[in-house]
Each structure stands twice: as structure tokens, then as C-alpha cells.
Prior knowledge:
Layout: E1 5-8, H1 10-15, H2 19-23, E2 33-38, E3 41-46, H3 49-56, E4 61-62, H4 64-67, H5 88-97, H6 102-126, E5 129-131, H7 132-149, H8 153-167, H9 174-193, H10 201-211, H11 217-226, H12 231-247, H13 252-258, H14 263-273, E6 283-285, E7 289-291, E8 294-296, E9 301-304, H15 306-309, H16 343-360, E10 365-366, E11 374-377, E12 382-384, E13 388-390
Parallel strand pairs: 3-9
Antiparallel strand pairs: 1-11, 2-3, 4-6, 5-13, 6-9, 7-8, 10-13, 11-12
Helix pairs in contact: 6-7, 6-16, 7-12, 7-16, 8-9, 9-11, 10-11, 12-14, 12-16, 13-16, 14-16
Amino acid sequence: xxxxxxxxxxxxxxxxxxxxxxxxxxxxxxxxxxxxxxxxxxxxxxxxxxxxxxxxxxxxxxxxxxxxxxxxxxxxxxxxxxxxxxxxxxxxxxxxxxxxxxxxxxxxxxxxxxxxxxxxxxxxxxxxxxxxxxxxxxxxxxxxxxxxxxxxxxxxxxxxxxxxxxxxxxxxxxxxxxxxxxxxxxxxxxxxxxxxxxxxxxxxxxxxxxxxxxxxxxxxxxxxxxxxxxxxxxxxxxxxxxxxxxxxxxxxxxxxxxxxxxxxxxxxxxxxxxxxxxxxxxxxxxxxxxxxxxxxxxxxxxxxxxxxxxxxxxxxxxxxxxxxxxxxxxxxxxxxxxxxxxxxxxxxxxxxxxxxxxxxxxxxxxxxxxxxxxxxxxxxxxxxxxxxxxxxxxxxxxxxxxxxxxxxxxxxx
Length: 413
């Protein structure tokens, strides 16, 4: 399988009309479970909703054993809670879980909403075109995450740059990701040691856990750095995917402005219909397991194809249709032990973005033909490369506005 599948056409990407558009090349058809060989191992791909739920909560599949085979592993990767099994997973998640709770995310909602309004207000003042991902989605999600974690404002830009450097481009070699991780780890370590402008929030709590002997120094710095891996990028991509779903249906943003109670269900439907996440975290079987009549042997790899799982016709009526008021039971945040720790924050971020856009730019539209939009699908993420959009402060499109810079005339970043 190619690591990254690319293409053009925003409508095709948003609608996910076939498996290639949903989960990339090299994925065989088959429901609810199929297999292939990758890197000399058999890998099972789970496509059914009930089968995915069963797999994701089954403790006979190990994340930690598989993670240990990946090399090179940096100091933050070695402390990533996503790569642990219980009981270590339970211990570390307990340390950080409170900061990502539904209660904490709700406390942050007003901050995120204000940040969204401020970013959007600046874009509207600057002119009727922008790349919504670079100028709105990405700064919003990183700002929200930094606030939740307690990153001092003086440190945010440097850590954002290192976090993005660690992400790299889709399909970046492991060696490049490793080098990026080392730089991110150095930056976070310096923040933790700063006594003149110390961190707050969860970062301060982790420092105190180190002082009290709960974490040793390598655990402190590694765990803190791991919290900047890809949550902000996945949330940014999810906002963009959600906005594309909405503006592809004329009048829908305006409907949400008039009916704000629909925003939550619209966001959940976008999470189901066009998630930014792709494969679940791959696990390795530690003993023989039967799943959907498939005999999975010890050492086999297993992963769930979440965008396909989310369109299981046994669970969703007319699953290929976007329904703004659907009560979606998607698995985009996973299930079981490794349910996404940042799910509550991500929901607040996407909902705040949609509310701000529906109020301030209800007639938002693409600034380029939808066929010009490009996208990539990797095992970890489904994302647009850019989302050029157009608006005016009144929300009424004005193509004759001579102050507007044409998107294609903008200088390259």
C-alpha cells in the first residue's frame, strides 16, 4: 500500500464516493473484515461498525507491543499515552485525563469562541479571500490546545513551529519525524524549566508530579512533549472537512445561523461523514481471536478503517448522504481504552469554528473551482491541502469588489 494517496476535487473528497477517497489506495474491499500482507505480516482491516467496536475494546490486542517495534523512537514517542497498554496506560492517562475532561473543555468554550471570532474578524477585515486552513483552522486549534495545556504565550509560536515540524509532510520518512520530535522535545523541555515565565495548567501539574516523585525527569519531558504531536492538526483538518461539507450545500451555513441548535448534530455528522482521522491505531494480537468469522493469530496486525466503519449501512440509514440533523454514532474518536483523550476539546473547537462562520460569513463559498482543491489521505489523516474561501463582511458575495485580491494572484507562502 502506498503510504499517501493524493488527488484533486473537493466534492469527491468530501463525499467519499469510494474507498480510495475514504481511506486511500491499497485497501481491499470486504465487509466486515478483510486481510492483506504488509511488511511481511498479515494485517486485518476491520470495516464493520459492530466489529470495530468489539476490536477496539478487546484487551487481547496490544498497542504497546507493536509500538516497541517501531524505530527510531524519540523521548516523546516513548511516553505517548496512545502507545501504552494497561496498567501503565491507566496510570499515565489518569495524570493527564482531567485536563481533557468534558468539564474542562466546557470551561474553555468561551475562550475558544472568542479566539474564533477574533481570527475570523481579522480575515474579514483583510479582504474577502483566505486559505481557511492556514489562516483560521490551524491557528485556532493550536491556540486552544496551548491554552488548555498552559503554555505561556511567549512560548507558543516556537512550540507551534516545532510541533508542525515534527508532523512534517504526509508520508514523511520516520527519520525526519524522529528529528522533528527531538527538536520539539528540546523546546518543551526548555518551557518546563523556565522559572521566569513558567507554564500553567496541565504543564504545571506535570512539573509538580515530577517534584513529588510521580514522574521522573525523562517521563516528565517526554509526556509533556507528546501532548503536542498531532491533536491540533487533526482538529484543524476536521474543521476544514466540516466547512467543505457545509459550503458544498448552498444555504446550509445560513440554516445553522438561523438554527444554532443544529450545530452540534451537524458537527457530529461531519465527523462521521468526512472525518480527518483515517485508520485507528494499529494493534497486534497477543493470542488467537475470532472476529467476524476471521481467525486472527498471535502476531497479526489489526486496524479499523474508521471512515468506512462510519458508513456501515447496518447502522446508518442512507450512510452516503450528509444529514445535518442525523444522530450520528460514529467511531471517529475511537472506542474503549484508547478513545481519543482530546475528543471533548476537538468538539468544542469544531463547534466554535462553525458557529463563528455561520454568524459572520453565512454565504461563505469557495474562492476556486472545487475541482482545484487538492487533498491527501495517509494512514493517520484525511486532509485538504488548502481551503481557499471567499466572503464579505456582510456575508453577501461581491465579485465586483475591486479591493479583493484574486486567490490565484496571492504570493506563494
